């Protein structure tokens, strides 16, 4: 039976002022201009006094905004969040068994590193399909545990830290790259936390942050991995922490232009109310999408439980009957075309689902995105959906 065509959806009058909704690198802070970086110490050695002071300022301002305890170590490391996580895995694991939570592509990558690269003999991978979390109650507190706080490619986040025991024996290693500065993290339950500049504060890529609790430092200074460590991963020398890494003496050469950009983002964060202000901005973006999804007859959150919905990487799936009736390969083509229509119209850039995720959309709702732009975007999603349905849905029905 051929269904009646859906009434055409006219193009909305209102357009987002900023069309950047990419999940990384992410939108620059509101009002950003290149002249904000005019004070960058270009052409200088990062080991000189003034450039080193700028690096130390990034650490100090990050610590203050996030509320990181003074007894934690916080440093700038190479290779973005990926580099920070890899440093932690290769330097800290092996002292005891490890559980890895895998519920989207990046956390699955950490599981691959643990099982296939480090080849740890006592490793468990606790998995869940896209849209869900693994059984947190099955995590063994006597073991180390590796996890992402927010699944950047699934839009699924951990709702709380209650599942982590305060008297745990193992270390908790948390990839917080799309959570830090947008979500309140239970620092007392965490031992290693990583993130990058390119996410919630919209910084330029290639630089990561590594935060270590006293328990993590103790592990570093008492545990010698069974495998050789590349220079870029080494955090200790002579069984002692290399303190300079956590005082602005980075392992490799940082971009001082990116450093200036990071400072610009941090100063903006302070102006909008610090962490509470940043969290509120991201929460407002999620709420705007949630209100629209509640009215939509074709879109739904990929995260199945409301408490696990990310307020940064907001992932949507297409649930319209016409779409679900398509073959899987055709679904991917249709979803890609929907995102492509929005990009061609200059409404939203880079909002297609991650390549390993189910076909759909991924809208960045981090703190640098204005809620007014999210609100302006949403009617355009209906417009683009109607165009794609007209091409794919009715052709399928006619068959």
Oligomer class: single chain
Give the CA-based shape: globular
The named CATH superfamily of the largest domain = Type I PLP-dependent aspartate aminotransferase-like (Major domain)
Largest sheet, if any?
7 strands, mixed
Strand content: 5-15%
Structural class by SSE content: alpha/beta
Order of helices and strands: HEHEHEEEEEEEHEEHHEEHHEH
Distance between the termini: 9 Å
CATH class of the largest domain: Alpha Beta
Mean pLDDT: 96
Q: Segments where pLDDT lies below 50 for 5+ residues? A: none
CATH topology of the largest domain: Aspartate Aminotransferase, domain 2
User: Total number of helical segments?
Assistant: 9
Give me some keywords for this one.
globular, 14 strands, 35% helix, 15% strand, Aspartate Aminotransferase, domain 1, 7-stranded mixed β-sheet, alpha/beta, 9 helices, 3-stranded antiparallel β-sheet, 2 domains, 399 residues, Aspartate Aminotransferase, domain 2
